[in-house]
Write a structure and sequence with these properties.
- The complex is a heterodimer.
- Chain A has one domain.
- Chain A has 14 helices and two strands; from the N terminus they run ααααααααααααββαα.
- Chain A has a two-stranded antiparallel sheet.
- By secondary structure, chain B is mainly alpha-helical.
- Chain B is 70% helix and 6% strand.
- In chain B, the strands form three sheets. In chain B, strands 1-2 form a two-stranded antiparallel sheet. In chain B, strands 3-4 form a two-stranded antiparallel ribbon. Chain B has a two-stranded antiparallel ribbon with strand order 5-6.
- In chain B, a hairpin with a 3-residue loop joins strand 5 and strand 6.
- The radius of gyration of chain B is 23 Å and the shape is globular.
- The C terminus of chain B is likely disordered.
- Classes of the chains: A mainly alpha, B mainly alpha.
- Chains A and B meet through helix 3, helix 4, helix 5 and helix 14 of A and helix 3, helix 4, strand 2 and helix 15 of B.
């Protein structure tokens, strides 16, 4: 088999884009989730919660820029089709991200009396962005169906993805905090986990019925054999994590990172399921990754840079997380 | 309403709001590095206080820039799908390189720069400042490369209505790119210099005579006084480059309706595009010929050479004049302030009063300059390749109108909040002066004391 660049490049870029989306969903997922959980936290707890994500959120959001950048760069046709179809939810996502992002900074710098306002805006922005992302996922899964059915399903996925983000946020707080807030985070995790599971089941049930092509891929032999580990392993992880929530936090804080890693694994499995269902389409049943791709010489030019730079990015991202490792203390400009 | 004009207003509003913040962060990163290096060299904690005052402004501006930038990356798709479909092969890689080489670098090390002083060694903290400042500049490099390519495209061929790159070097270093990059970097330097000088002048007026105030004030004033003549020279060179590659833009900037020699320099006029003439014109004879061709009989291109293919005259003409006028004001104010600081070691109150509103003069000049060059590119989105009208997406006008209204309200409110915080930070610093607390020592393993503790 010869290696055919024009065939391979779109595939590589679809993989890179998928990776960027997955990393974004996991990393900014916990940021947004903590924003959602702001609604149930006391003033002092809110400061600690911000301290748990303050040094990271910016880099986390950059993965979204990379993901949409790769969509725009590698699949310009799909970029236009998807984003014009999702005009209003994209707009809500952007307004949410704007409010969330600036609230981080404003709440720490405005006179003390105005801090509450920015805390509320932080909650509002995070919630809005999460709901919009879930809605977009729902509508996308149904093949960019913007009819009434698509909207209803989008609303359901919006709620469930927000719950999933809140679960990620809780798991991150279990890792980054201690004492009462940590105990609270465990209880939050338990509640949001149920909704997360519900959301994954809903998306899993809807996906095969969105198109006969995906149905075949799910339920015909031998394809069903390849797919079956995904739901089984996900279900086991869910059950295991659910049981864990009754034993956390453990003495001397062992395994505090485990709920987060487990959830990240569940996200990855769910994402793999979606990728498996939609491949090779980037716009469901309309445009394949090859039809939507940019010219090979442009993709090759980007790939060179990506291969060199991406490992460096991952390396210094880990370094930044390490510098701010351990339990979150009050975040000061130090 | 027409989705095209609404989409244009929306993108114009977004990019105008966005550019305000990179205009600050690009140069402020280097100013912070300067504060940091002075602190490293002298051990004077006033430098570190100046650093911590301005790093807060940096953080806030950076966040505003990030969120408004994310908005724009989506709007290429939501409002201008024709853009990426036609020139995605060129624009895509340039944007991708911006994300890969700049955005992650800035975002990852910003955390260390802001919150890491007590957590990493002083050397690493300085390095983080270098990387963030370098990241913002690299980011400017890529986006200016793309913007300049849209103005003066090079190094590509059209196949089936799509641009394909032939020579990436020619694409990136297209004819107007070096001029525009230098002009923009200097604009950022001036924006920051006047912002620092203005906020420090506000502190001065509130009676603050602390070392950290003097250090910031001098840095701002002297940087402005040095940069402004360089900028005037660079701007002139950029204008000559535009004359060579986009003569119709020059014709609109000068409101010159007919090609010819002995073209006057119009100081004031109300260009009337329907009648193809200037009303209430006030002009210096032969001025434009002299500036653009260095000879009174030099031939200056006129709008009559580009029927139906030149930008709207009024906004380009006035955008250019607002920019140049602001630049001249900057020259006068910064040199006067530099004179008093150097010779008298003081600042007269009236001058300080002028310097406070001049804190935003960089924003005004930057916006006016961008309007000149971007409106000056119309009716093209990519000169000679893609018209703006052909790139707009199939979104309903009502949707665009709704989102535009929300964006505008949001931007106005955020701008008010941002300026409010700037004033609040300046007044807080004025009250605390050199007694402002340095960050408390944490129990982190690698924590370092600030000098003098």
């Amino acid at each position: 088999m010869t290696f055919d660049w024009p065939t391979a490049l779109p595939l590589i870029f679809a993989g890179l884009m998928g990776l960027a989306i997955l990393i974004y969903v996991i990393l900014d997922g916990f940021d947004l989730g903590i924003g959602i959980l702001f609604a149930g936290a006391e003033d002092a707890e809110q400061d600690t919660m911000i301290a748990a994500i303050g040094p990271f959120w910016d880099a986390n959001e950059t993965w979204l820029v990379l993901a949409v950048g790769l969509l725009l760069v590698a699949f310009p046709m799909a970029h236009g089709t998807i984003l014009t179809a999702l005009y209003i939810p994209v707009f809500l996502l952007l307004v949410g991200l704007i409010l969330r992002g600036v609230a981080f900074d404003f709440r720490a710098k405005v006179p003390a009396g105005k801090k509450h306002r920015w805390n509320r805006i932080f909650f509002l922005g995070s919630t809005m962005a999460s709901l919009a992302q879930g809605y977009m996922l729902g509508v996308y899964v149904l093949g960019l169906d913007v009819g009434l059915g698509g909207m209803a399903f989008g609303a359901l996925v919006a709620l469930c993805l927000s719950a999933a983000y809140a679960a990620m946020g809780s798991a991150w707080l279990i890792y980054k905090t201690e004492g009462d807030l940590q105990g609270k985070a465990v209880r939050w995790l338990r509640v949001t986990l149920v909704l997360t599971a519900l959301g994954m089941v809903a998306v899993s049930l809807a996906t095969p019925f969105a198109s006969p092509r995906i149905f075949d891929r799910w339920f015909l032999w031998p394809e069903i054999l390849y797919l079956s580990p995904l739901p089984i392993v996900s279900a086991l992880l869910f059950l295991w994590l659910w049981r864990q929530t009754f034993h956390l936090p453990k003495s001397d804080d062992r395994h505090a990172l485990r709920p987060f890693l487990t959830l990240a694994a569940i996200f990855a499995l769910g994402f793999a399921g979606l990728a498996w269902s939609f491949y090779p389409y980037v716009v469901p049943d309309k445009l394949t990754i090859w039809q939507a791709a940019s010219a090979p010489e442009s993709l090759a030019f980007i790939l060179v840079g990506t291969v060199v730079v991406l490992p460096i990015i991952i390396f210094y991202s880990f370094y930044a997380y390490r510098v701010f490792g351990g339990k979150a203390t009050d975040l000061t400009y130090d | 309403m027409d989705p095209l004009i609404l989409s244009r207003i929306q993108f114009g509003a977004n990019i105008s709001f966005h550019i305000l913040f990179p205009a600050i962060t690009i140069a402020l990163g280097w100013v912070l590095l300067f504060f940091k290096l002075r602190y490293n060299a002298t051990g004077d904690s006033a430098w570190m206080r100046a650093y911590f005052t301005w790093v807060k402004v940096f953080a806030l501006s950076f966040a505003m820039g990030v969120v408004s930038g994310v908005t724009m990356s989506f709007q290429f798709g939501t409002n201008w799908p024709g853009y990426m479909e036609t020139v995605g092969n060129i624009a895509g890689p340039l944007l991708a390189y911006e994300v890969l080489t700049a955005f992650f670098l800035e975002a990852a090390f910003l955390g260390i720069m802001l919150f890491g002083f007590r957590r990493v060694s002083n050397r690493i903290h300085t390095l983080a400042t270098v990387l963030v400042a370098g990241g913002t500049t690299v980011s400017a490099f890529w986006i200016i490369a793309l913007n300049s390519w849209m103005q003066t495209p090079a190094g590509f061929e059209m196949i089936d209505g799509k641009a394909h790159a032939l020579d990436w070097w020619a694409v990136i270093f297209n004819p107007s790119m070096p001029y525009r990059l230098v002009h923009m970097l200097l604009a950022s330097g001036l924006t920051v210099s006047f912002l620092i000088a203005g906020c420090s002048a506000l502190r001065y007026l509130y009676g603050d005579r602390s070392e950290s105030m003097w250090k910031a004030l001098r840095t701002g004033v002297f940087a402005a006084a040095i940069l402004i003549p360089i900028q005037i020279f660079a701007g002139d060179q950029h204008g000559l480059n535009t004359l060579e590659h986009q003569p119709q833009k020059i014709a609109a900037m000068e409101a010159n309706w007919n090609t010819g020699a002995h073209v006057p320099l119009v100081l004031f006029a109300l260009p009337d595009e329907a009648a193809k003439e200037n009303r209430f014109e006030l002009a210096i004879p032969d001025g434009a010929s002299l500036i653009l061709r260095h000879s009174t009989s030099g031939v200056v291109p006129g709008l009559n050479d580009y029927p139906g293919n030149h930008p709207p005259v009024f906004p380009v003409f006035w955008g250019f004049r607002v920019m140049v006028g602001t630049g001249i004001l900057m020259l006068i104010v910064s040199w006067s302030a530099a004179f008093f600081l150097k010779r008298r070691r003081s600042l007269p109150k009236p001058l300080a009063l002028i310097m406070v509103p001049m804190a935003l003069s960089g924003w005004l000049a930057t916006l006016a300059g961008w309007y000149t060059t971007e409106i000056g590119r119309q009716p093209w989105l990519v000169t000679g390749v893609l018209k703006t009208a052909d790139a707009v997406g199939p979104v309903a006008g009502s949707h665009v109108a709704l989102t535009l209204a929300v964006y505008l309200i949001l931007y106005v409110l955020l701008l008010i909040a941002y300026l409010g915080v700037l004033v609040h930070l300046a007044l807080k610093a004025a009250k605390e002066g050199d007694t402002s607390p340095l960050p408390g020592v944490m129990n982190a393993a690698m924590s370092q004391p600030a000098a003098g503790e």
